[in-house]
Amino acid sequence: MGGIDILVFVLFVASVIGIGLWKSKDEETSGEKGAQEYFLAGRGLTWWLVGFSLIAANISTEQFVGMSGEAADWLGMAIASYEWMAAITLVVVAFVFLPKFLKSGIYTIPEFLEYRYNTFARAVMAITTMVILVGVPTASVIFSGAKVISVFFQGQSLMGFDLGSISVGCWIIGVLAAAYVFAGGLKACAWADLIQGAALIVGGGIIAYLSLKAIGSADPQELLTTARNKEVSVDSLENAGPLQRFIDLNKGELPDGKLHMVRPLDDKKIPWSALIIGLWIPNFFYWGLNQYITQRTLGSKSLAEGQKGIIFAAFLKLVIPFVVVIPGILAFNLYSGDLKSLAEKKNAHLLTEFEAGSEKLIDFSDRFAETNPELAAKIVNHNATLLEETPLESDKQEVISIWGRNAELIEMSETSKIPVAGKLVGYDYDAAFPTLLKNLLVPGSGVLGFVLAAIFGAVVSSLASMLNSASTIFTMDIYYKLRKGASQSELVSIGRACTIAFVLIALLIAPNLGSPKFGNIFNYIQEFQGFISPGVLAIFIFGLLVHRAPRSVGTVGLILNPILYGALKLVAPQIAFLDRMAICFGILLVVLAIMTKLNPLPEPVELPVNESMNLEESGVAKFWGVVVVVLTIALYVVFF
């Protein structure tokens, strides 16, 4: 980084954090509304704060690293469904979920379950949400932020600490985020997010522009090696502009083309069947029932302000794939060699173990077999020998047979006593976006400092949001239930103590997420949330829409889902995790419907009412909500 970059970086980060803390300095954390001030910003957030805060809390390095990485791999534009389907989800949340939640005056989503079902349901959701929030997204954002630092500052040090180390990056990010939320609470997060959300989109736009510019001047011969389109040639690339080059390299028939929104039914991550049911489940859970996101909407000044803020966020979600997904695809086109080199470093430890005569099985990806066919064949024979199976035949040494045979052997390991040491990868796809930053941003221009500050601030914003929400759940759903007489200042103190504890737990987990066994970081997050999201969504649908559903529905839904999901994962691991979610969700709906039919409540449950909340709906939000839905459908038509 040049001197001007360092200056821009420091000034931007300092001003964002400073404005957030300044705006929250008048919070009265010891008065009778102390907890409401600290955890829900005094229920005074206006629509622009809600909208930008939702985006800044959501978009972080888990998207810039994880989603870009999935786009660089085989998924391409299909991964954009997480963003574009979220736009429609947000419209539903604004007009179905939010009115119920604001009317009841709840602090947390688990709190709603006690009013609608029972204390046990609240406790189960609170504990599982808190554990997953700290162990999955919080740890993942710390890891993915550290990934950016380690790739970008590889070989450099700060005060004697190696910035190329994932562990060092994790501690830098975790400590700064914890200090921020410790001091300021939700209001500090929301005001910082106002600036941070805009900077994120601008910074992502700069990278998208520079990526297209770079592909326009790249050597056609080198670009051709990354083509998914079998009809493209050096001559056609030489005569094409930047956008046409991007299209020509990545279009094509399924499963090769990367510009499709729909993937084949046997796709491991987003089969087309998931677009019908499976993908809606994590979307509705995340945007409507996930505490660290909904905490912003629960802090709305009024229902109308909350609805306008959510619809504004929905518009921004339509933009995200253009500044995250497309650059991820371009990263592979431009710098596949860099991603391969980084994968070799990632694989080094496992290959050393293999060469030393490991007594464990070695897994590898199809891309590893593609780039290292001879070594992959040796690994297959090694695995076959350990399992006392037939080695590869000499006439079946092509890549598909090598990878396919190894996949069969790895499946056999589940019934044998031989463990799998790890998985070798052909490319480090999680490094796609950091590699773009390293290769495209010129030191000394100030742009490098701004983009890095925007991404770094995004990490801090998301982590602050997650830590604030996890501490809110512990304080209000667990501690306050056990200690009814706790003062407002005591609740705030407990919330701050939780922030420190939770970030330390996440820091112990985060550095380990670089292991190939976790796969792509974005996939890791979604996979593990499957243990809770179908069950939570099912019981909230019954709680909000089926007024005579018995109180036992909440308990059964929360307990049965992880059992079903875990059983499917164990018995049928070949089923895509989104399809597993859909299967669990369908079974739960049937079970809960039978329970309601057999034992309906004699009278609907009366929920509490927050008399001070203005519950008049926004006509403006309704109009623009329809526009969002129409635009989303149009984007699917264009990229279908």
TrEMBL record:
GO terms for molecular function: D-glucose:sodium symporter activity. One of its GO terms (cellular component) is plasma membrane. It holds the Pfam family SSF. Keywords: Membrane, Transmembrane, Transmembrane helix. InterPro entries: Na/Glc_symporter_sf, Na/solute_symporter. It is a multi-pass membrane protein. Its main location: membrane. Gene3D superfamilies: Sodium/glucose cotransporter. The chain crosses the membrane at residues 6-24, 45-64, 84-102, 123-143, 163-183, 190-212, 270-289, 310-335, 447-470, 491-510, 530-546, 553-571, 619-639. It is found in: Membrane. Belongs to the sodium:solute symporter (SSF) (TC 2.A.21) family. This is Sodium/glucose cotransporter. It comes from Bythopirellula polymerisocia. The lineage of its organism: Bacteria, Pseudomonadati, Planctomycetota, Planctomycetia, Pirellulales.
